[in-house]
Design goal:
Structural class: alpha/beta
CATH architecture: 3-Layer(aba) Sandwich
CATH superfamily: P-loop containing nucleotide triphosphate hydrolases
Keywords: ATP-binding, Chloroplast, Nucleotide-binding, Plastid
CATH topology: Rossmann fold
Protein name: Probable ATP-dependent transporter ycf16
Mean pLDDT: 94
Number of helices: 8
Shape: globular
Oligomer: single chain
Number of domains: 1
InterPro entries: AAA+_ATPase (IPR003593), ABC_transporter-like_ATP-bd (IPR003439), ABC_transporter-like_CS (IPR017871), FeS-cluster_ATPase_SufC (IPR010230), P-loop_NTPase (IPR027417)
GO molecular function: ATP binding; ATP hydrolysis activity
Order of helices and strands: EEEHEEHEEHHEHEHEHEEH
Pfam family, one: ABC_tran
Bound molecules: adenosine-5'-diphosphate, magnesium ion
Strand order of the largest sheet: 6-9-10-3-11-12
Largest sheet: 6 strands, mixed
Strand content: 25-35%
Length: 251
């Protein structure tokens, strides 16, 4: 079990892409067991922040530091960060024709097991495990045999990200707009799964536009991002104010 209180500590982080500053002097601390939500207008830098934490190579870090469980990961490779315990659920999951969803999920799962020097699962045992998981988010098992994300509906893509999160059991899960494009039922399924997944020993960073997800998940902290920086931090009430008055009147 992770006994480190501060799981993520970002300080003075500035990031640019093609010489344009996108993250500007940002600080953020997430402790073990907390759920943080980041809200903010389109283009405020939320997805960039998510990708930078998980190590996307496109972005150059101009200054600042990212510590994960007290280890400096600012320039660490994405696969090392994943093995260290960071998961990113993408805003726009990529379609990969020709790669079966279940093969992909099993490779990711077994890569983690191998890294931990634990036994990997054969296809049948993995099929049993994954079937239990998909029942909880209301997806049919035939969806496992299709190509990864290819032709998946918006909701199915998001559910597949949640399925990966649940199988991989990382300590910090970043979910970028996991709620966008979902119907009411799918939003409930996903929210319930996130709530069940959350434990005192893991942490979640949700990026969202919507009050509804915040009402379901009840994050411990809510932040408003604006022009690459966290301008205001508070609790769930902040999300209610944004819903009422809009970003323009708050930041
Ligand atoms: P958000 O998720 O808050 O909507 P993003 O992080 O996606 O915002 O984008 C923040 C800003 O950075 C936007 O102006 C966007 O156009 C720019 N940006 C992000 N990624 C890239 C990229 N790969 N190339 C060029 N500009 C980018
Ligand atoms: Mg985004």
């Amino acid at each position: 079990m992770n006994t480190c209180k501060k799981i993520l500590e970002i300080s003075n982080l500035s990031v640019s892409v093609e010489n344009k500053v996108i993250i500007n002097n940002l600080d953020l601390v997430i402790n073990t067991g907390e759920i943080h939500a980041i809200m903010g207008k389109n283009g405020s830098g939320k997805s960039t922040l998510a990708k930078v934490i998980s190590g996307h190579p496109l972005y150059s870090i101009d200054k600042g530091k990212i510590l994960f469980k007290n280890k400096d990961i600012t320039y660490e490779e994405p696969d090392v960060r994943a093995h260290d315990g960071i998961f990113l659920g993408f805003q726009y999951p990529v379609e990969v024709p020709g790669v079966s969803n279940i093969d992909f999920l099993r490779s990711a799962y077994n890569a983690k097991k191998t890294h931990l020097k634990e036994d990997i699962l054969d296809p049948l045992s993995f099929f049993k495990l994954v079937n239990k998981e998909i029942e909880q988010i209301n997806i049919e098992s035939k969806f496992l045999n299709r190509s990864l994300n290819e032709g998946f509906s918006g909701g199915e893509k998001k559910k597949n990200e949640i399925l990966q999160m649940s199988l991989l059991q990382r300590e910090l899960c970043i979910l970028d707009e996991i709620d966008s494009g979902l119907d009411v039922d799918a939003l409930k399924d996903i929210s319930n799964k996130i709530k069940n997944f959350h434990k005192p020993y893991n942490s979640i960073l949700l990026i969202t536009h919507y009050q509804k997800l915040i009402d379901y998940i009840k994050p411990t902290h809510v932040h408003i991002m604006h022009e690459g920086n966290i301008k205001i931090s508070g609790n769930q009430e902040l999300a209610t104010e944004i819903d009422k008055y809009g970003y323009e009147n708050i930041v």
